[in-house]
Design goal:
Blueprint: E1 2-5, H1 13-20, H2 27-49, E2 61-66, E3 71-76, H3 83-89, H4 98-105, H5 110-113, E4 128-136, E5 145-149, E6 154-159, E7 166-173, H6 183-193, E8 201-203, E9 206-207, H7 224-234, E10 243-249, E11 255-261, E12 275-279, E13 282-285, E14 300-304, H8 321-344, H9 346-351, H10 353-366, H11 368-374, E15 380-381, E16 388-389, H12 391-398, E17 409-414, H13 421-429, E18 434-436, H14 442-450, E19 456-460, H15 466-470, H16 482-491, E20 499-506, E21 515-518, H17 521-529, H18 535-542, E22 545-552, H19 556-563, H20 567-584, H21 590-605
Parallel strand pairs: 2-8, 12-14, 17-18, 17-19, 20-22
Antiparallel strand pairs: 1-6, 2-3, 3-7, 4-5, 4-7, 5-6, 8-9, 10-11, 11-14, 12-13, 15-16, 21-22
Helix pairs in contact: 8-11, 10-11, 10-14, 20-21
Length: about 600
């Protein structure tokens, strides 16, 4: 029998391990099973090279729970260890010195401690009052041994009666961790962290993992149904994805995985953190913001790379050049895939734009390299015909009619087709092309992309009267005399809460509405963005709204109003016309709306 002390230079190393090694204690099961997988995989490698001889037998890992004895046992049939190897790998904790460890990480959180030392085995002490390890090496002539430690630096190492090759680790669960004696909890932990490990894992006589998940196979080996079935295993309640990208890189870094574009019909359905990160098929985390570009956090699926540096708990990424390379590679692969679908299956691409548009626009705003490629396949849908245009196609369609004085193409857009229907009709009657920009990100998208696209200006279809949308027509004259115009301006004096109103009289076509309410493009755009977070949004949200009431002096109704002898009735008629215009902009609410309704009824009753 051998007795001794684990070779560390402080008495309190195990309390430190229990407190700081992992932020989540259920990680212990993943770490111990990952070690068992490593031992099994090494045996396969040794057998293929001839270093290990004899029958391998069934290579599997078993997790056994004994609630009465308060133990959890993880058994493998891998390479095992000799007594000398136990002394080397178990008794010599991988610290240069405990004092150096404590000094270096004093006051820092567990995220900074993890990843510098090989402490996976010791995670078992977080939930145990005692850990025993029984093992028999694959090497010929080896004798089995049992190592035992109660969480102090003292251990025992004695011969055992174990006859089968491999290692069994038994955790004697402490009183604070008895939650892990629940079979349902153990099963959930195994399914979370070990669902795709390459060695069969059994719990309660059932295999809980798939050893060859779709992403480790070559794309040529998979069919459409294989990708869809794998997606369903990851997200059982989701609709079939739009399409997917199979990642398979072995130089200059190793990266495999499958990324899916889910269906997103409404902006509020967006949920991030749906991509799962694996390292050699061991689940690490679903927080992958350092590896995957922010705009692609809307994707789903898995990525697996042993080249991504991780801490011991495998929950935090450390800075490393490979992370940036992988990030760039994923961006390129996504852009290339979208471009390929657009070129080869444009109709299908357009049909999926409702969901795809969110990814594309978000990417164009946040990633310059992606934007440069996306300019080719970003599309805008006509608000009336439903036709789709790329930027260049819109330029061509609008080249004759929609150039302003500066030579810029004016892209007219609508954010609410129902509310802005009359404005859209007025614009399309003139031959203008109006596109839909009605998603959550469009207000920000327009502001950012306008500065990046050459000779392009976005203008909402209700930002001005139709005559002025493309170019100011300052010389438009009405049939009214100067005196009549002055009288109308007096009648149109309009006061509203938190709204600055300006009145102008122009000579529009006789079939144009009598009064048109418009809001300056810049201020309205800022108001739209005020719904987004940020100090500038709050600033613009607090500012009074601005609206211009353009009075059509050529409309016949004003001749009738000016003939009216009752000035009170004139004012009520004019106020109603103004309110109708504001109503079309969604700016008539509360008490003002009530007053408008009451006034309208009264006017109808006038004789």
């Amino acid at each position: 029998m051998q007795k001794g002390q684990i070779r560390v230079q402080t008495e309190n190393i195990f309390p430190i391990i229990k407190k700081f090694l992992y932020s989540e204690h259920d990680i212990f099961l993943r770490e111990l099973i990952a070690n068992a997988v490593d031992a099994t995989q090494k045996l396969k490698t040794y057998a293929s090279s001839g270093e290990a001889t004899g029958e391998l037998g069934e290579l599997r890992i078993d997790v056994l729970l004994d609630k009465e004895a308060k133990t959890i046992t993880i058994s493998d049939r891998g390479i095992g260890m000799t007594a000398e190897e136990v002394d080397k790998y178990i008794n010599q904790v991988a610290f240069s010195s405990a004092e150096e460890f404590l000094e270096k990480y004093k006051g820092q959180n567990e995220a900074n401690i993890i990843g510098h030392f090989g402490l996976g085995f010791y995670s078992g002490f977080m939930v145990s009052e005692k850990v025993t390890l029984e093992t028999l090496s694959y090497k010929a002539g080896s004798e089995s041994v049992i190592w035992s430690c109660d969480g102090s630096p003292e251990f025992t190492l004695v011969p055992s009666e174990k006859k089968e090759r491999g290692t069994s680790i038994t955790l004697h669960v402490n009183a604070e961790s008895e939650e892990f004696l629940d079979a349902f909890k153990i099963k959930n932990i195994l399914e979370k962290f070990c669902k795709f490990l390459p060695v069969p894992i059994f719990f309660e006589d059932k295999q809980i993992n798939v050893t060859e998940p779709a992403w480790i196979k070559k794309p040529a080996e998979l069919e459409k149904k294989d990708y869809e079935e794998f997606y369903k295993s990851l997200y059982p309640f989701n609709e079939t994805p739009l399409f997917w990208i199979h990642l398979n890189v072995d130089y200059p870094f190793t990266l495999t995985g499958i990324l899916y574009f889910p269906k997103i019909k409404q902006s509020y359905e967006i949920q991030k953190d749906k991509i799962q990160l694996y390292s050699n098929q061991v689940f690490v985390t679903d927080e992958v913001k350092d590896i995957v570009p922010e705009f692609l956090m809307l994707l789903q699926g898995v990525i697996d790379s042993p080249d991504i540096p991780l801490n011991v708990s495998r929950s935090y990424l450390q800075g490393d050049p490979n992370v940036r390379k992988i990030n760039n590679h994923i961006t390129k692969k996504v852009a290339d895939k979208l471009d390929e679908i657009f070129r080869n299956e444009r109709q299908a691409f357009e049909e999926k734009w409702e969901s795809l548009g969110l990814f594309v626009k978000y990417g164009m705003m946040t990633d310059e390299k992606f934007r440069e490629k996306a300019d080719r396949f970003h599309i805008m849908q006509d608000a009336v015909s439903g036709q789709f245009y790329t930027l260049e196609e819109y330029r061509t369609a609008a080249d004759t009619l929609q150039k302003n004085k500066d030579g810029k193409i004016v892209i007219l857009y609508a954010t609410d087709q129902v509310q802005q229907d009359s404005y859209i009709k007025s614009a399309t009657d003139r031959g203008y092309k109006v596109v839909k920009m009605d998603t959550l990100v469009d207000a920000s998208f327009i502001g950012q992309i306008e500065s990046k696209w050459d000779n392009v200006q976005f203008t909402r279809v209700d930002a001005d009267i139709t005559d002025n949308l493309i170019d100011k027509q300052e010389d438009s004259k009405s049939v009214l005399s100067e005196k009549e115009e002055e009288k109308l301006k007096e009648l149109f004096e309009y006061k509203a809460d938190n709204v600055t109103v300006q009145v102008e009289i122009k000579g529009l076509s006789t079939d144009a509405p009598p009064v048109i309410a418009t809001r300056p493009e810049f201020m309205r755009r800022m108001k739209d963005m005020a719904a987004m977070s940020g100090p500038m949004g709050s600033f613009y949200a607090s500012m009074p709204d601005e609206v211009t009431l353009t009075v059509n002096g050529n409309h016949a109704i004003f001749s009738e109003i000016l003939k009216e002898k009752s000035e009170d009735k004139q004012k009520r008629q004019v106020q109603n016309l103004a309110d109708l215009a504001l109503l079309s902009q969604g700016m008539l609410k509360g008490s003002q709306l009530t007053t408008f309704i009451t006034r309208s009824i009264a006017l109808m009753q006038d004789k």
